[in-house]
Amino acid sequence: MVTKKDVCETLKSLGVKNGDILLFHSSLKSFGQTENGADTIIDGALEAVGEDGTLVAPTLLTKSFYVAYDIFDKNTSPCEVGLIPETMRKRPNALRSDQATHSVSAIGKMAEFLTNSHSTSKPRKFPYGDYAFSHGSPWQKMYDLNAKVVMMGAPYDTITFRHFVEAIYSEKIIDSVKDENVREQLRARLVTYDTITEYKDIVRQTGNPASTDLIRFQFGTKESQTLDPSICKTAYCGSSLFTVFNCKDYVDGMLNDIEANPEKYYNAHIVEFISKVKSL
Asked: What is the CB neighbour count within 10 angstroms for residue 207?
């Protein structure tokens, strides 16, 4: 039977301390039996970060992705990535950011700062919406503040910071082009939330991503879904494997590796696109 104390002590053994910003990805069923369901996990994590810390949950819309911008209400729309984040979202002291597809909920000292300006700051063009990983998004702020991330029995392909890396790398590559007109032409080719269905239909019909001028600048390999063991600490809490890492280590390490080995992360047509853009 997993208790709040078990969760707190496991997190502390992995380096989580008072004052930390801690983002979690979770699977409740991975724990086995818990004392009080999802609340056990939330309460234990809150105790680990303490009064000066902040707990952050991804409250994404995944099943409703293609209608997210039509239906999203930050106060009432349930998150679709698990019972633990949904339980936290519904707590009276939780604050939620206002972006439809990739919102977060937060409790603690930095909750208001992290959740404001998600959809009002400088955008980054991206298939999930131009504000999903905007310059004022919780994802950018957590990166800037070097938040910790814990995977609580969740697979590594659910790390949302992976998409943050995709967004900032595509921005970096296009911003490296000196000619402003060329930059705008390249940005116009990037798949956005409004064109992702069109892009998918073309690729489905032709079987060839290069058959359209649209560029979906996202990872396309299994290797992009892995986690460098050198940046992680792991321990079990009940039957749930906890993996803790600093988000800067994850993001910066991946960005450096992409620069050296883009073929590890992108399909061939994106690697070719990157090469052409760098030559401009």
From this structure: 8
Full DSSP string of the chain = -B-HHHHHHHHHHTT--TT-EEEEEE-GGGG-SBSSTHHHHHHHHHHHH-TT-EEEEE----TTGGGHHHH--TTTPPPSS-HHHHHHHTSTT-EE---SSS-EEEEETTHHHHHTTTTTS-----TT-TTTT-TTSHHHHHHHTT-EEEEES--GGG-THHHHHHHHHHHHHHHT-S-HHHHHHHHHHB--TTTHHHHHHHHHHHS-GGGSS-B--S--SGGGG---GGG-EEEEETTEEEEEEEHHHHHHHHHHHHHH-GGGTS-HHHHHHHHHHHT-
Find out whether 101 and 68 touch, Cβ atoms under 8 Å. Answer: yes
What are the beta bridge partners of residue 3?
Answer: none
Q: Tens digits of per-residue pLDDT, 54-88? A: 999 999 999 999 999 999 999 999 999 999 999 99
Q: Full-prediction pTM beyond 0.85?
A: yes
- Based on C-alpha coordinates, what's the Rg of the chain? 19
∠ CA(181), CA(184), CA(185), 5° rounding?
A: 90
Residues 168 and 88: their CA atoms lie apart, in Å, by 28
Beta strands 95-96 and 54-58, pairing class: unpaired
Distance in angstroms between the alpha carbons of the first and the last residue of the chain? 60
Alpha-carbon gap, residue 151 to 191, rounded angstroms: 29
Q: Which two tokens stand for residue 175?
A: 């911003």
Q: What is the pLDDT of residues 2-30, one digit of tens each?
A: 999 999 999 999 999 999 999 999 999 99
78-99 residues labelled b (16+ CB within 10 A) or e (exposed): ebebbebbbbbbeeeebbbbbb
